[in-house]
């Protein structure tokens, strides 16, 4: 086995945001050497990496030269130069997840087509090369409203997704390649994280449930385990494992799914990396998602994915009407509450809805954790001084 | 409240070893700015601190100038220049634990006298200004063998402690101030970590048990919770809380105790910082000892000290007859075992008995964890290539 621990081995990470930062907790724990590149001088990964540099992740030459410095290359964001990854692979550098996997994911039109080809259940869709093509399809009645419009690329954390109810809404959508997805009424939005290593060992995490705000269309809580029937949970884990097999990915694959009104599971989209829906695992799981990603890409044995206790995650997003140097108002109050752990990503400037951190609430009793999570949400505020 | 999170606030840490490194996981999680000083260029804290410098922690001017750069100063090792801490306190810099606390701890003769003055149960002892004075006391019969010899200062992780059975053993002891402690036969060696913040909030962790090797006089496992009667555990926590009150410390205080044959609890010694006996808490507790230390010294609310699951800690020490670049032989095998987490401190060179890391084994069933801990101990080896 390669000696990764306190050795000359070098792991490269494309992207230095909060996902990279939390991955670095694990590389530090194992004393695995890390090289990180991010466009921003202020990247949360700037410290705790052995080597940090700034650079454009979409630039071929930048990614190529960075990748040549390391033994294994991974990423915390999909928006990277895939041609450079292909060149690095051809030069014998291990890239996990591979460019082949990324090819099938980074464009939503291609991703959806892949599910169809692989007989993986997903909502019916049509793809369009441009905003104009899409508008013509709506006007000709080829696409009926309401429909879910998704930008083919650049969609990330809900950006580039809109539910179009009236023709007026269409003016809001972005230019460029896109898809129109049938609006499938669903009971629950679920996610399952699957880990896979080069040796082919596969492990799925318990099903989590995104709990939405009753009125605002926005995820409020990620709940683990999901409060659904075990038959549905088993089905969701099985579907997630099929998706993982289809992609033959290495590392983590976060599979977002819908539980339809008639308890069918259909795949929404995937992310080939640690994921917001897995943050609860740092406090709740035997092996958190970041350690698991590291184990997977280094071809180490996968860890136990089960939970020690119930976990709920609340995102800390910038409050509306607040821009400027960040202040976490009432954070000392939530730290008084049982089983509450705030994670502060380290972004110095807050903006409305900017992801500034998250809070995990763990408890033996999930219902109790859910109650405390509500208090947390009603108490802490991300504002500017 | 002071805004510690993503702010200009600066926390200083004297010492950049493994305790500091694990404390930095928590300062990163809260995005608290850190300044670290350590004698070694190779210190495990060199990365992940916002600012790192080398320097002699026993040098007055070095500690003074370093301390003036920060708002709150703490340490991960007691061997620091206390006069400099006093000067810093007089200049209004917060030093936690305070120089007053450290004064009563850093010298074992003074520490033992303090327990006697405070009516805290401890083994009978006599103190001596020099090795010669001590030898005279043995020869005159003032001290009877067997006795426990302890160097008054510089004792750390068992160094500077010896059980003297015959007069010949005395040749082995070090020069300088020392104490002779009555050899008290005990059932168990226990420890309790107590956290206290400036507001006076106090929290004790569950009692842990050091399990010794049946023949070699060496701790093999730290077991939480200790496998003792609840009445004894309650007594141990109560004694630890009394010690904490007596010291009026701020931060963590690890209280090492003996359970005597007749179930009395007597105090052995204390450490005013995160402690080896609390490493299990990273995986097992709702609030790990490093986060708790940070909460305490920043006068934030203390976290829940209870455990999610049973925890056992095994130290990873350098194997005998191995010196040189470290290799963790069979680490991939122990990573296959349930609930096993290796912590690699990042020291590049191994030496016989050098503390290179630790492994935590967590499980709902403590007996099962203990079984796996044994497998871990029989499997992994810290060798040189």
Automatic annotation (TrEMBL), chains A, B:
Record keywords: ATP-binding, Ligase, Nucleotide-binding, Purine biosynthesis
Pfam families from the UniProt entry: ATP-grasp (PF02222), PurK_C (PF17769), RS_preATP-grasp-like (PF22660)
Gene Ontology MF, one: 5-(carboxyamino)imidazole ribonucleotide synthase activity
SUPFAM superfamilies registered for this protein in UniProt: Glutathione synthetase ATP-binding domain-like (SSF56059), PreATP-grasp domain (SSF52440), Rudiment single hybrid motif (SSF51246)
Reaction equations catalysed: 5-amino-1-(5-phospho-beta-D-ribosyl)imidazole + hydrogencarbonate + ATP = 5-carboxyamino-1-(5-phospho-D-ribosyl)imidazole + ADP + phosphate + 2 H(+)
EC numbers on record: 6.3.4.18
Binding site for ATP: 108, 150, 181-184, 189, 268-269
Domain ATP-grasp: 112-298
The protein's annotated pathway: Purine metabolism; IMP biosynthesis via de novo pathway; 5-amino-1-(5-phospho-D-ribosyl)imidazole-4-carboxylate from 5-amino-1-(5-phospho-D-ribosyl)imidazole (N5-CAIR route): step 1/2
Superkingdom of the source species: Bacteria
Family label: Belongs to the PurK/PurT family.
Function text: Catalyzes the ATP-dependent conversion of 5-aminoimidazole ribonucleotide (AIR) and HCO(3)(-) to N5-carboxyaminoimidazole ribonucleotide (N5-CAIR).
Subunit structure: Homodimer.
Protein name: N5-carboxyaminoimidazole ribonucleotide synthase
Organism of this sequence: Gillisia lutea
């Amino acid at each position: 086995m390669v000696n990764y621990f306190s050795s000359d081995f070098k792991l490269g990470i494309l992207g230095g945001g909060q996902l990279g930062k939390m991955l670095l907790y694990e590389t530090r724990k194992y004393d695995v050497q890390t090289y990180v590149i991010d466009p921003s001088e202020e990247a949360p990964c700037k410290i705790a990496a052995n080597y940090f540099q700034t650079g454009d992740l979409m630039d071929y030459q930048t990614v190529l030269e960075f990748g040549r410095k390391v033994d294994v290359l991974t990423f915390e964001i999909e928006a990277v130069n895939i041609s450079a990854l292909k060149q690095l692979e051809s030069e014998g550098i291990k890239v996990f997840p591979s460019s082949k996997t990324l090819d099938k994911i980074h464009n939503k039109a291609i991703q959806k087509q892949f599910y169809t080809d692989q007989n993986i259940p997903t909502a019916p869709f049509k793809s369009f090369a441009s905003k104009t093509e899409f508008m013509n399809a709506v006007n000709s009645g080829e696409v009926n409203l309401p429909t879910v419009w998704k930008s083919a690329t650049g969609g990330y954390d809900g950006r580039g997704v809109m539910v179009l109810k009236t023709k007026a809404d269409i003016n809001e959508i972005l230019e460029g390649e896109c898809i129109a997805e049938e609006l499938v009424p669903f009971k629950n939005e679920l996610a399952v994280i699957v880990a896979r290593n080069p040796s082919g060992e596969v492990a799925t995490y318990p099903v989590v449930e995104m709990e939405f705000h009753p009125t605002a269309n926005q995820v409020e809580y990620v709940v683990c385990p999901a409060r659904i029937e075990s038959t549905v949970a088993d089905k969701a884990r099985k579907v997630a494992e099929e998706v993982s097999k289809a992609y033959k990915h290495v590392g983590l694959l976060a599979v977002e799914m819908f539980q339809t009104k008639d308890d069918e599971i259909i795949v929404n989209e995937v992310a080939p990396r640690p994921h917001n829906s897995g943050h609860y695992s740092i406090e709740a799981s035997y092996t958190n998602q970041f350690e698991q990603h590291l184990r997977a890409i280094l071809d180490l044995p996968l860890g136990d994915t089960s939970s020690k206790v119930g976990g709920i995650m609340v995102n800390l997003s910038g409050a509306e009407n607040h821009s400027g140097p960040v202040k976490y108002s009432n954070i000392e109050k939530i730290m008084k509450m049982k089983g509450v752990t705030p994670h502060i990503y380290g972004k110095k400037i807050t903006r409305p809805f900017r992801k500034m951190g998250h809070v995990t609430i763990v408890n033996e009793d999930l219902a109790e954790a859910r109650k405390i999570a509500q208090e947390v949400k009603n108490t802490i505020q991300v504002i500017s001084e």
